[in-house]
Model the fold of this input.
Amino acid sequence: MATSAQTTKGPNKGAVLALMCVAQFMVVLDIAIVNVALPTIQKSLHVGESTLQWIIIAYGLTLGGFLLLGGRLADLLGRRRVLLAGLALFTIASLLAGVANSPGFLIGARALQGFGAALIPPTALSILAVTFTDGAERFKAIGIYGAVGGASASLGVVVSGLITDGPGWRWVFLINVPVGALLIAGAAKFLPADVRAKIRERFDAAGAISVTGGLLLLIYALNYGSSHKWGSGTTIGLFVGAVALLAAFVLIESRSRSPLVPGAAVKNRTLMAANLSAFFTFGAFFGFIFLGTLLMQNVYGYSATKTGVAWLSTTAVSFVVAGITGTKLVGVFGVRKLLIVGQALLAVSMLLLTRVPAGGSYAADLLPALILAGIAGGMAAPAAQIGALTGVAPEMAGLASGFVETLREIGGAVGVAAVATVLISKLGHGGQSVNAYHAAFWLIFIAAAAGAVSAVVSFPRKVTPPQVEAPAPTPVAADA
Done:
């Protein structure tokens, strides 16, 4: 099997952490930053209603579909090399999107942007894992990284409103160009050169094609089903195609001499449990952001900018708690307990939102739930990422990162699609607006509660990470 090792002797760790955090911020920001600008883009480029959603979907589709492959490529070809390639593609695609003069050109640029983005998060996370080899140091770095990723999702709404009302919608994309250029220069300077081991086996092309195709179809099916009928022939066909490709991937991996996903990864209970937690955590949290934004605008009458400002309470609390999670809480309580408590708190937050009145106030009715959700996300999100990288050998850090990032995107897509379906169904049957939102928040409550239960059942109480530089492995508490 082909392996690669990232030379980590003597890197400027502070610079590496800063670079990875900014790269993650840019990627996650672009998931949300376009939403507020959509009406302006529609008028400027004369985009049809049925086409408009593809400006969002194209990015999320290729991002989610190629994350697993991006993580494995980082292990096989070198993390620095793959990160630079991803940053270059993302920057070029952002420039193309910014100068687009037709809907088709913009959608194509967004798809390329998503592909470049798919190479960045798993590579960045694996770089942190092999750069910060000490347990406490790694927890702190990943906690900060997770905090930045969480903050960027809600900050995207604020930034988008300011840019759209200021220099114009094109700068929603063009702002990535100077940032991307600086990241490329910084990565080239501060990241050590890749050291590749001798290649002894072929790359698993069949596995890569089947899993990427299956993930692409799955994410597309979720997007299609949420905006069309779930029982339509097209929707069912898409899901059947996705299942067939993913089943083919499992069969290919079982027979491959050089599998894309080695058996050691599948047998790693900690990694699989962390991925399950990531699915529930981000599925509930993304659904919460989607539904909460609509509630603020459609029920409470907030403007786009006011909605973004309202989310700052969740963002700020999540950022602070995630930093504390990485620096202190993981070492004291362990990953397992933080996942359980974090998802339980998120469930309680959703329970509060099932009772908000139509004419309620921000301070009395929304703010308590938003703050509690921020605490929950600050605990659970970095804990899932730390858990995914605990007990994983350095040569599989990219794959592990790709796994958890893929489950993040798929969980988010499932969460948003499920919430949208419930909301549309309730509103379509003549229900009162606020009652429809209550029903959708109950669904998120169930997802968060299921995540807490899954962490109790699936996550091991103790894990033993493989040695990195030490002569023997040291047990690390997953549930101190």
User: Anything to note?
Assistant: Confidence is low (pLDDT under 50) at residues 1-8, 464-480.
